[in-house]
Structure to design on (860 residues):
DNA sequence: CAATAAGCGAGACGGTACGTCGTGTCTTCTT
DNA sequence: AAGAAGACACGACGTACCGTCTCGCTTATTG
């Protein structure tokens, strides 16, 4: 299942055109096999120790078939990661009515889930592919950085609707403040103690200032 | 000037040994020329479109001279970036006594400075080199991620000493919440509006919850 | 017009069967278009710089249509060359009754005609295709090497019938001695002076003539 | 031993320059290994079924090392063939004083030697490489077509000096008339009966001899 | 002051991967 | 059933880098 839930096929590929197509149609099976092989290899190797040739071999596919549909390795890896071929369990976001408690539980889950080897590998691959593919693939990684679209943003949105947030609170900023430090540490492999995550949740939910500045 | 101020030479290189050296000593001039050339190339090319060969040519240096002192391209780039061969102006952190105002001013400065082409290039190079050099260079990028060592942490520390922060506030978490989302966006090239930065500062300084949870 | 005069279709293709054919019959138009396109391309490119794909594109024909009727590029090229799609003017062989004079005139004609760019291209293509298609196409190029079947052999045969040749003279050997050195030089692109050709004719005719021509 | 006897290194490579050379010198061992590997492969495969990659692998050499010194496969093969890495025994040319007898013996030897599998392979490789490498390598194959430089021309020259040839006889033409038909048949794989070779010798010798041999 | 040692620029080396091209087969819709 | 279109598996091409190695040369310390 994808981190992003939705099918992201359209992000990389133009949707099937309405024009009557001539010639042999694209083999959807090959498409799948490539992404699966990529995901499999990413699980056991780093981004730049896998080659297009190995992906092709692993997928039982011709190299040209890869280059026919993707411009380079970065794009293949991005599609594999973004469309969820790299398996990943989402940390569930509860809604007990208590925002601080829900975020705390979620954060602890993320600290566990996010530092699983597979997630680290995936996050690094995403980052490496995004950086290498620049500037062509920049838009992709930008779009997909939108973790806010997930459960976290949703939970914050609900809190706002229930007037649990102070007026003017920016939920996108809050989501960023929660998730980006975590993601960063996952990518660079810096371990995070549970207390650190908790402090982050505390900070975002209640701020750090002794007296709230008047705005 | 380096982002980190201090000389980081020791991080990558064993310090000059006390033992009396035989043979021709290392040419400090070559050392400099390599780092300068690397910085120059990083300004106009991405991390993986520059090669050791190009660095050597640009520096007017033999390739072996590079490999004698660094293990691979990632290390050269890391040293060039970390020791400040990539020029960079630090955003000054004021201390007017008003934390929220000081952080706001600093954030707006960072939004300007951080999205300068050179800073983006440097940040991406750092990231790419760190990722590629794994696991050998992991420690480096982890250490250098410690932006807390800079002005931001210092300002927060002073605020804490003056009891401007609520009890139990975690300044490291706050610093992370402020800087990581910014850094992330710089690396992936996602533009940030001034309002977004402001919201981040607001969130961290005052939190988002309507009522502070009792802790 | 073909060097060999006759239609060589049968050499490569099984003759049209008598059996009642089911389905759409072979498009003779496509057949022609392929050979024409091949000849056209051979005029401007060398054998191995043209591809089946280019032939198909140039002919406006599907690639499979080519592979349905020929086994490989060598066969297509051989048929195109051998059936005379590569335009070629035969050097006429006179019969004035004077063998030495007739052969001399013919040789000078060949030296002119054979070193025309088109002939060179054709000869090289024939050679290259024959070599590449080995061993399948070996028989073809062997058969077609039989230049003896042409005007030269015919003229020699007539001379023999008129007792102009010394007893025991081998006209096939004489024909080979005349034409192979020429052909070889055409293929490898080694220029031949008129005097060289004349010397060849002199050598062979004094070797086979009943009475040595007075020179 | 080479068909041409002499070392042909200079034909393909610029001779070692007098200029003081910098950097690591060319590995003569690698040079040899490439040519040996090429010759070995040519013995068991046809010209275009061997690849540069296989040559490199067989030689235990990097592919770039081949491309550093030769422009393409054709040049490697040409050098391997022309410098005699493809083993070849020359047919000895006797000088009994009787030209017709000497040429007959030599021709019968050639018919045996030339149709040995190795010689056929070598001749075809030479031809294929020469054709493919056009026009760059054209000069090479032209030069090397100069079989006249060998024993045959030498024998004819001696005969001329002894006035065994008729006045005005062109020994180059005679040599061509003898060897090119043979070479052509070897290349295209057309078997030659001993009688055919004998007829060729008869034709040429009676053409050039001062006194016709009695037959 | 020679001998020894190690660094230097240069550039060839054995390799790995790249991205392109060509071959001959297969699969779609069209004629 | 054949044709045009074009995707497919395969594999060679020629290039670019990697990290190592060997040259002749230079610059130190040591004997």
């Amino acid at each position: 299942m994808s981190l992003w839930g939705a099918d992201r096929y359209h992000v990389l590929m133009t949707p099937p055109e309405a024009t009557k197509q001539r010639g042999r149609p694209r083999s959807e099976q090959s498409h799948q096999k490539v992404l699966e092989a990529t995901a499999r290899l990413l699980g056991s190797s780093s981004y730049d120790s896998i080659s297009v040739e190995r992906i092709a071999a692993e997928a039982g596919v011709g190299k040209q078939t890869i280059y026919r549909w993707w411009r380079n390795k970065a794009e293949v890896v991005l599609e594999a990661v973004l469309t969820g071929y790299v398996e990943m369990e989402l940390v569930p976001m509860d809604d007990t009515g208590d925002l601080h408690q829900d975020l705390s539980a979620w954060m602890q889950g993320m600290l566990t889930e996010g530092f699983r080897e597979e997630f680290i590998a995936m996050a690094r691959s995403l980052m490496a592919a995004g950086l290498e593919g620049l500037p062509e693939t920049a838009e992709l990684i930008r779009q997909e950085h939108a973790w806010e679209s997930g459960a976290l943003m949703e939970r914050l949105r609900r809190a706002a609707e229930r007037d649990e947030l102070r007026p003017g609170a920016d939920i996108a900023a809050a989501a960023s403040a929660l998730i980006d430090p975590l993601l960063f540490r996952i990518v660079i492999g810096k371990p995070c103690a549970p207390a650190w995550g908790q402090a982050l949740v505390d900070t975002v939910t209640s701020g750090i200032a002794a007296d709230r500045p008047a705005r």
